[in-house]
TrEMBL record:
It holds the Pfam family Glyco_hydro_31_3rd. Residues 1-21 form the signal peptide. Residues 599-688 form the Glycosyl hydrolase family 31 C-terminal domain. This is Glycoside hydrolase family 31 protein. SUPFAM superfamilies: (Trans)glycosidases, Galactose mutarotase-like, Glycosyl hydrolase domain. Belongs to the glycosyl hydrolase 31 family.
């Protein structure tokens, strides 16, 4: 890893591949070349601009630069024929699903993967711009160049501080990035269970009913969540005394705990101010006493507007903010809301008005009316593609029958880049509110729907320079608070806004790109947050999300209910997928032990594992869980088959997770797989040995208390390898652990056990796939084994009448 930095105010720094520009004529040419300069635009010298351009090989593969939902998919578009392929803006904003625009978080790192057609080999490296300043990052290919593409950085201030990660493999680049950001937070084992939430569980009776109905349907539920319905007057750290009375909430949460289940509430970024002289709200009054809120330039409290009305926002640079935040969370936990983890929301930071709209206002007036989803004028009417509410009714219950066809396509996004000017450009001093170079923030001015950029923080910092860090700093403070409140336990956090190092403190949603950002504990709002889902979409989504780290069903207020028990087919698909997920829990915990110790990503794009196969470089409709599990979900409406590529170009034997059958895969191209409703294609790579739970149960605790199983998939040479990390799944910092290593060669399975954690559960089942002939003799530790079976069609050797102590090394042999 190499590093260089260029600070604002220094002279031009140049090397063969890098050039920094502060000369106005260079800026002007750069804007004009990329078609982004308005015809009437002009520019004069100003210190609020940094530009750096570097060449890239034409046709290279770039990943990262987010957070983004890119129309090009996981691989970023580098443009052709003089066009800009990608313009990624780094400015956090509250917008849930924009295409090719900035959204919740900022991660100015990319992974480049280069393929050498002469040698047939590839190599990867990474580049990180370590800056919190607002920026545009462009990928383009000039029309005049034949073999060169460009990456261009345009910042409105701050420091050009670059880190380079040498790789040479994709997983090594991601692991090396952790040396800068820090290693990912250790996740509690229960965090891998299924979570249920929605905005619209209006009271404790409705919330409790979800827990009961999930159990009645025998769909495992690990953690119940509440959105802002929980709050009194939408105020943080409260529960409504009528809808969620404290004594009933305490009883409900204790009831969950007695059943090995958990509870998580939401915490919004904006803290309500007092409405009048008789109003009592301790989180605000205590925060004012400790002087912990963001200020206006004149030193008064900066007052925006969120759900409770006028609000203030914590200043994470102030000396007393950690004390205030920890007190607020501790008091909340002590007085009825004894949470297992915390969900941080609205922390870009989001504000519904522009500027310090509450300063000097009548604070008894909440200001501009806020349209709540589901209210008249803001009804939730959207449905998934192919859903016909006229035919099927507004129920989400799409008719599923034997005549399914590809009835419609998936709407694409407009890819054209709108031209923008370069800002006012006439100020002689620093312009905090409207910098002269207008980065392409999709709300327009940087202060729209967030804190004004002239808002001030302790230490003299201004929002313009530190805006993108707010969410990450809140995560760090919350992590510290939860670590104190639930001492000795691994904190569980999910946060909406993220920044480099957020993975040390929290998880998020989004999957492949966030593995690059070292935020591995991620997953979508299953079945969809916005608009209305339907039976087919929720069925497919519940299956797919069972194979990503964070598994939560969540939707918006006013939309159709989408809990998995609502439709029989979804309930069935959920039970099947969750059972598979819980059986894989030892594998998940091992992958996350690795990311928390050496930084290797738990979820992987296919080319991470097969870097020399160019046909995989843009595949993002399949993914791998670790190195051994390939997932091919159905992402198309009305489908009964799915196309997927099987990496390895014929050198790898892939076996079906469900049936253990070998796949007759097309070499280097797509294979069409059967995918009826409620079935997701999952395959096991050869040369793998996976420790599993033999009896997946209703909760993670019950599952972990049961026996183990071992699934081995031999390669054509008859070998396999795997390991498993085992500990108590909760202690922070991690306590004693044991690492199990499984090695197979020459008809022998050797189990090596090293560590101080005492594994109480026995290994009671072993399946070895790829045994080419039925054995005549099987021994365990030299003693004959009875009760084994052999399936000639699957070449499967199964032992189900054994009891192996995993605290001791052992050997199983067959011949």
């Amino acid at each position: 890893m190499a590093r260089f930095a260029l600070w604002t105010g220094l002279h031009l720094f140049a090397c063969p591949l890098l050039a920094a520009a502060r000369d106005p004529s260079i800026l002007q040419r750069g804007l004009a070349t990329n078609g982004l300069l308005a015809s009437s635009g002009s520019y004069s010298g100003n210190d609020q601009y940094l530009q750096l351009t570097s060449s890239l090989p034409y046709g290279t593969n770039i990943y990262g630069l987010g957070e983004v939902i890119a129309s090009s998919g996981f691989r970023r578009d580098i443009g052709t024929g003089g066009g800009v392929g990608t313009l990624q803006t780094m400015w956090d904003r509250d917008d849930p699903d924009p295409i090719d625009e900035n959204m919740y978080g900022s991660h100015p790192i990319y992974l480049e993967h280069r393929y050498n057609e002469t040698t047939g080999k590839s190599s990867s490296h990474g580049v990180m711009l370590f800056s919190s300043s607002g920026a545009d990052i462009l990928l383009s290919t000039p029309q005049s160049e034949k073999n060169v593409s460009l990456i261009e950085y345009r910042l409105v201030g701050g420091v050009l501080d670059f880190y380079f990660f040498a790789g040479p493999s994709p997983t090594e680049v991601i692991a090396q990035y952790s040396a800068v950001t820090g290693l990912a937070n250790w996740q509690p084992a229960w965090g891998f269970g299924f979570h249920l939430c929605r905005w619209g569980y209006h009271n404790i009776s409705i919330t409790r009913d979800q827990v009961l109905r999930m159990r009645e349907a025998n769909i495992p539920l690990e953690t119940q969540w509440n959105d802002i319905d929980l709050y009194h007057a939408y105020r943080d750290f409260t529960s409504d005394p009528v809808s969620f009375p404290g004594d009933e909430m305490r009883e409900f949460i204790e009831e969950l705990a007695s059943n090995n289940q958990h509870y998580i509430p939401i915490v919004d970024a904006g803290v309500a101010i007092l409405n009048n002289a008789t109003d009592v709200y301790y989180p605000y009054s205590r925060g004012s006493e400790l002087d912990v809120f963001v200020k206006n330039p004149d030193g008064s409290e900066y007052i925006g507007q969120v759900w409770p009305g006028y609000t203030v926002f914590g200043d994470w640079f102030a000396n007393n903010t950690q004390q205030w935040w920890s007190e607020a969370l501790r008091n909340w936990s002590n007085y009825g809301i004894e949470f297992s983890g915390i969900w941080l929301d609205m922390n870009e930071v989001s504000s519904f008005c522009n500027g310090s709209c509450g300063t000097g206002a009548n604070t008894a007036d909440t200001g501009v009316p806020i349209e709540i989803p589901g209210q008249p004028g803001n009804l939730v009417t959207g449905y998934p593609e192919c859903y016909n509410s006229t035919l099927s009714g507004p129920s989400g219950n799409m008719t599923i029958n034997g005549t399914l066809t590809y009835a419609c396509g998936i709407a694409g996004a407009e890819g054209a880049l709108a031209k923008r000017g370069i800002g006012a450009g006439e100020e002689t001093g620093v312009n905090l509110n409207d910098p002269p170079y207008a980065i392409h923030n999709s709300f327009g001015p940087l202060w729209v729907k967030t804190l004004a950029t002239n808002a001030t923080h302790a230490g003299g910092y201004v929002e313009l320079d530190v805006h993108n860090m707010w969410g990450m700093m809140e995560e760090k403070a919350t992590h510290a608070a939860v670590s104190e409140i639930r001492a000795g336990e691994r904190p569980f956090l999910i946060s909406r806004s993220t920044f480099p190092s957020s993975g040390r403190w929290s998880g998020h949603w989004g999957v492949l790109q966030f593995q690059i950002y070292q935020i591995p504990f991620v997953g979508a709002d299953t079945c969809g947050f916005q608009d209305n889902t339907d039976e087919e979409l929720c069925n497919r989504w519940m299956q797919m999300s069972a194979f990503v780290p964070f598994y939560r069903n969540h939707n918006t207020l006013g939309a159709l209910s989408q809990e998995p028990y609502r439709w029989p087919s979804v309930a069935n698909a959920s039970r099947i997928a969750i059972a598979a997920r819980y059986s894989m829990l030892p594998y998940w915990l091992t992958l996350f032990a690795n990311v928390s110790t050496i930084g290797t990503p738990p979820v992987r794009a296919l080319f991470y594992e097969f870097p020399d196969e160019p046909e995989l470089f843009e595949v993002d409709r399949q993914f791998m869980v670790g190195p051994d599990i390939l997932v091919t979900p159905v992402l198309t409406p009305n489908a009964t088959t799915v196309d997927g590529i099987f990496p390895g170009r014929g050198t790898v034997v892939w076996r079906d997770w469900w049936t253990h059958d070998v796949v007759n895969a097309t070499v280097g191209g797509n294979t069409t797989l059967s995918a009826p409703l409620s079935h997701i294609n999952v395959h096991i790579r050869d040369h793998s040995a996976l420790l599993l739970h033999a009896e997946p149960a209703y909760t993670i605790a019950e599952t972990r208390a049961g026996p183990y199983a071992l699934l081995i998939s031999l390669d054509t040479a008859g070998t396999a390898f795997g390991n498993a990390y085992v500990d108590d799944g909760i202690s922070s910092p991690p306590g004693p652990s044991t690492v199990l290593t499984f090695t197979v060669a020459n008809g022998e399975l050797n189990v090596k056990s090293e560590g101080a954690w005492a594994i109480e559960q026995m290994l009671e089942e072993i399946t070895v796939l790829g045994v080419q002939a039925k054995p005549t003799e099987v021994t365990l530790g030299g003693a004959p084994v009875e009760g084994w079976t052999y399936d000639e069609g699957q070449e499967g050797l199964t032992f189900s009448n054994i009891s192996v102590d995993l605290n001791e090394s052992s050997m199983l042999a067959w011949k």
